[in-house]
Design a protein that fits this description.
68 residues, mainly alpha, 4 helices
Length: 68
């Protein structure tokens, strides 16, 4: 995936270390990606389209007992 796309995703979903760790766990388990560079392009496109939904999905994955 292009670095510019990864940087854009990182700006949209990054910032909080806890959230970033959850996202890395989520993409590793769900997509087999070591980091944002290895996400499938269709997944990256969806993240860019709806970043809040992606962050919520990562949080639900990492903390399924918490209501969101």
């Amino acid at each position: 995936m292009p670095v510019a796309t990864v940087e854009r995703i990182e700006r949209l979903v990054g910032g909080d270390p806890v959230t970033e760790e959850q996202i890395l766990r989520f993409i590793g388990e769900r997509y087999g990606a070591r980091n944002l560079l290895y996400l499938p392009p269709p997944v990256a496109a969806e993240i860019l389209r709806r970043p809040a939904d992606f962050v919520a999905a990562a949080r639900r994955f990492c903390e399924p007992e918490l209501p969101f």
